[in-house]
Specification:
346 residues, alpha/beta, two-stranded antiparallel sheet, globular
């Protein structure tokens, strides 16, 4: 085991996200036991990637895992936090609104006054009921943002993204009994409930099927052309991701965070990593950040996020990452977005 060759850390908060990540590697270098943890080594494109799953969810657990990985793998230059998240229904100006549907992917890109990740459980509530966030999470390093912009442009050209091919290849590596779970669940199983219609509070562990009134929801077809997707054809969205130790299941709070901070996706780990490590957060959308949680879409959302992460790594030359690390070690940063605390990076 050569720990020194790994330059990319990939954090999968949940087991199903770990499965999707492992199934995306081009070359599998098997398990790497170090201390209390066992990591998964692999190669994607030109990059040696080490993958780890969190023992529990939350920003604190993610921060602890990133620190452990930096200690075990001294040459990690950046992290990808890849998994599932909840989305808003849409964003953008009137007349040019982008719709988010289940299975789509959101990537943390600095938007407005935020660095791409908004820690919305840290701050102060004013007398007017407005959350004033305290501090400013770091943004992704420039080489990752450059790769995101380059891939975004490539997606707009023909033939577009390789995500569909990556998804098919990924499923071929899985146990046959598991493949259906990681498949596109279909537009007929994507329903967006009205903000004021809540899932029964004492039945949060049950799905909406046979429990919630479908007349209180919109189907994907009802939401217009912007919500239409082909099979295995998720759209990629770019913007602020809300991160907190609290599970976001309130439609009203979702809408407020979107309105006040431009948040288009919610998750529970990114802020714990990006505050102290170079990081990009990538999330596949499995629900709409309301009380109607949808476990049916979780495996596929994990797969689409992992497929985008793989395609992004293909966009980054290996020597660009090492060059960025040398700049970081000399601490020649420019601009507040690129300030990173790299005490654990060597």
């Amino acid at each position: 085991m050569d720990a020194a060759r790994y330059s990319i850390g990939w954090i999968a908060p949940l087991a199903l996200e770990f499965t999707a990540a492992k199934a995306m590697v081009d070359k599998d270098y098997n398990q790497i036991p170090i201390g209390e943890y066992t990591y998964q080594g692999g190669k994607i494109g030109d990059h040696y990637v080490v993958i780890a799953v969190q023992p529990r969810i939350g920003t604190d657990a993610a921060s602890d895992l990133a620190a452990r990985m930096c200690s075990a793998f001294k040459n990690i230059k950046c992290f990808l936090v890849v998994g599932i998240g909840g989305g808003v229904r849409g964003y953008g100006p009137d007349g040019a609104t982008s719709q988010i549907v289940l299975g789509d992917v959101v990537t943390s890109v600095p938007t407005g006054n935020h660095g791409g990740v908004v820690r919305y459980d840290a701050g102060a509530w004013t007398g007017e009921g407005v959350l004033e966030t305290m501090g400013h999470t770091n943004g992704p390093p420039s080489f990752l943002l450059h790769a995101v912009a380059s891939l975004r442009s490539k997606h707009a050209m023909s033939p577009g993204t390789n995500i569909s091919n990556f998804l098919k290849l990924m499923r071929s590596t899985l146990n046959p009994d598991e493949r259906g779970k990681f498949a596109d669940q279909g537009s007929e199983n994507d329903r967006l409930f009205r903000d004021e219609y809540a899932h029964p509070h004492d039945m949060q562990d049950r799905s909406c099927d046979g429990l919630c009134d479908p007349e209180q929801s919109e189907s994907r077809q009802d939401r217009g052309e912007e919500a239409v997707r082909g099979l295995d054809a998720p759209r990629i969205h770019y913007g602020n991701i809300g991160s907190s130790n609290q599970l976001q299941i309130s439609a009203m709070k979702r809408n407020r965070c979107q309105e006040e901070h431009g948040v288009i996706c919610f998750e529970m780990e990114g802020a714990g990593v990006i505050q102290t490590h170079p990081c990009l957060v990538i999330r596949g959308i499995c629900d709409y950040s309301d009380s109607h949680k949808n476990k049916k879409w979780q495996p596929y959302a994990a797969a689409t996020a992992a497929a985008y992460a793989k395609e992004l790594l293909y966009e980054i030359p290996a020597d660009r990452i090492s060059g960025q690390c040398e700049l970081a070690n000399r601490r020649t940063f420019r601009g507040s977005i690129d300030i990173l605390y790299l005490t654990n990076i060597r």
